[in-house]
Automatic annotation (TrEMBL):
GO terms for cellular component: cytosol. The gene is davD_3. One of its GO terms (molecular function) is glutarate-semialdehyde dehydrogenase (NADP+) activity. The keyword Phosphoprotein does not apply. The active site is at E257. Its EC number is 1.2.1.20. Keywords: Oxidation, Oxidoreductase. PANTHER family: SUCCINATE-SEMIALDEHYDE DEHYDROGENASE, MITOCHONDRIAL (PTHR43353). One of its GO terms (biological process) is gamma-aminobutyric acid catabolic process. It is an enzyme of class 1 (oxidoreductase). Coiled coil: none annotated. The keyword Oxidoreductase applies. This is Glutarate-semialdehyde dehydrogenase DavD. Belongs to the aldehyde dehydrogenase family. It comes from Pelagimonas phthalicica.
Length: 488
């Protein structure tokens, strides 16, 4: 299937391995389909361990030369990459919508969001400051310098096919690292388009490889390699835990952005209309397929009915359809497995007494379209309370006291994002500090931005992406003990 692109070269049916483009074909390649129509968009090569090792070897060579360049020079290349992404925003968004399903406007938003990480880290590249500490002896000084980790392997998911790559690649290249990337099988074309633009921006051959194909083989080659110094992964906690174990023998550094089970709390002193707006974003962004999506919505008893009514009225106005059509807010879910999980969660909740006040079933459009759904009367024994739905289902739980809702919110093995709405300043501080999460949104449903440290605690992962801390995740501190500074 052909897309109507200004720059058709961005939709390349090929992978980039150590500076060498390898074409995919219909006989041996992996088919990529459009979730809105089931139509095959194209093929990428089915690569494995051999090509991954080739990419890692090339990365090792390219990284040395890249790290030796000045930070200002690396920054200029990244800035060109950012400019190219923005100049090609509409084409990149079309590719993203075609393979992932999110509406075009949301896809264009993701391209701008993804590009903002390249812009931010182009700026941060020049600020990898070390420090000098007074020595422990009169003739000594303690120097800390920051150096790139080296070769980084990255594995990324389908829900943000652009931004989850740039949030890793930006700091890696800014720091002076090289990267071998395995994008998600469902959404490789967005990654490949990024590689086309990276080449054009002047990223040297071999510094950035995009290896498509067999996840396990590619992942194993990455984790077994003694050359790879860091693995960065965004995806399910299950796969993240496997990769964590696979990295143990070579003691790699790890960046893990894993699952969440975000609470979204509405206190009775909240601005209810603002809370509804926030819930729509926090719950339904990307059709609920975001690890920071609100998974459990807790509403204080006295405002429960009013909130449920307002939320249902708002969501009912938001149209579902093919993401290329104007005004669409809900695209298809990524695949049949996603629909099945959503269906199971709704069935489990209703079988235990929840009421469906909106949606609750597959959409009349068929395929993987699902009706945005709101459930009331939800209780803690239901699957939606403990498992990440990763779909357009908003389960509304009732609570009575602050202490109760904080305890309920923290009663999970996950700790990524959390949200609450309140106008009481003392409560804002208290609850922000009490939530066991890496991120807390107060009176907002959208917390993601390149300037902020994104990441989780507990089984939601390790490390931070974005912000100045995101650069540190790709740097090692080297301590130099400078002796022999005798008095004159
Ligand atoms: N935290 C987050 O942002 C995300 C969370 N999820 C959660 O995970 C669930 C399942 O989604 P799914 O796409 O299957 O997520 P996965 O964790 O399976 O996939 C994420 C990435 O890991 C790769 N991968 C899978 N298995 C291995 C392996 N053994 N070794 C190396 N790489 C591997 C995938 O490759 P390939 O695509 O080729 O299989 C993909 O690139 C979702 O329903 C959601 O709950 C999903 C995506 C993102
Ligand atoms: O689901 C994810 O891991 C992507 C998070 C998107 C965001 O940055 O908000």
């Amino acid at each position: 299937m052909t897309l109507d692109l200004n720059n058709p070269d961005l939709m390349r049916e090929a992978a980039l391995v150590g500076g060498r483009w390898i074409a995919g074909d219909a006989t041996t390649g992996v088919a990529v389909t459009n979730p809105a129509s089931g139509v095959v968009l194209g093929y990428v090569p089915r690569l494995g361990a051999a090509e991954t090792l080739e990419a890692i070897d090339a990365a090792q060579v390219a990284q040395k030369a890249w790290a030796a360049r000045t930070a200002k020079d690396r920054s200029a290349v990244l800035r060109r990459w950012f400019d190219l992404m923005m100049a090609n925003q509409s084409d990149l968004a079309q590719i993203l919508t075609a393979e992932q399903g999110k509406p075009l406007a949301e896809a264009a938003g993701e391209i701008a969001y993804g590009a903002s990480f390249i812009e931010w880290f182009a700026e941060e590249a020049r600020r990898a400051y070390g420090d000098i500490t007074p020595g422990h002896a009169p003739d000594k000084r303690i120097l800390s310098v920051k150096q790139p980790i080296g070769v980084v392997a990255a594995i990324t998911p389908w829900n943000f096919p652009n931004a989850m790559i740039t949030r890793k690649a930006g700091p890696a290249f800014a720091a002076g690292c090289a990267m071998v990337l395995k994008p998600a099988g469902q959404t490789p074309f967005s990654a490949i388009a990024l590689a086309v633009l990276a080449e054009e921006a002047g990223l040297p051959p071999g510094l950035f490889s995009v290896v498509t194909g067999a996840a396990r083989d590619i992942g194993k080659a990455m984790t077994d390699s003694p050359i790879v110094q860091k693995l960065t992964f965004t995806g399910s906690t299950e796969v993240g835990a496997k990769l964590y174990a696979q990295c143990a023998p070579t003691i790699k550094k790890l960046g893990l952005e894993l699952g969440g089970n975000a609470p979204f709390i509405v206190f009775d002193d909240a601005d209810l209309d603002a809370a509804v707006e926030g819930a729509v974003i926090a719950k339904f962004r990307n059709n609920g397929q975001t690890c920071v999506c609100a998974n459990r919505i807790y509403v204080q008893l006295s405002v429960y009915d009013a909130f449920a009514e307002k939320l249902a009225a708002k969501v009912a106005t938001l149209p579902t359809g093919n993401g290329v059509d104007k005004g669409i807010v809900f695209g298809p879910l990524i695949d049949e497995a996603a629909v099945q999980k959503v269906d199971e969660h709704v069935a489990d909740a209703t079988s235990k007494g929840a009421q469906v006040i909106l949606g609750g079933k597959s959409h009349a459009l068929g395929g993987t379209f699902y009706e945005p759904t709101i459930l009331t009367g939800v209780t803690n024994d239901m699957a939606v309370a403990t498992e990440e739905t990763f779909g357009p289902v908003a389960p509304l739980f009732k609570f009575e006291t602050e202490a109760e809702v904080v305890a309920l919110s923290n009663d999970t093995e996950f700790g990524l994002a959390s949200y609450f709405y309140s106008r009481d300043h003392a409560r804002v501080w208290r609850v922000s500090e009490a939530l066991d999460y890496g991120m807390v949104g107060v009176n907002t449903g959208l917390i993601s931005t390149a300037e902020a440290p994104f990441g989780g605690v507990k089984q939601s992962g390790l490390g931070r992406e974005g912000s100045r801390h995101g650069l540190d995740d790709y740097l090692e501190i080297k301590y130099i003990c400078l002796g022999g500074i005798e008095e004159a």
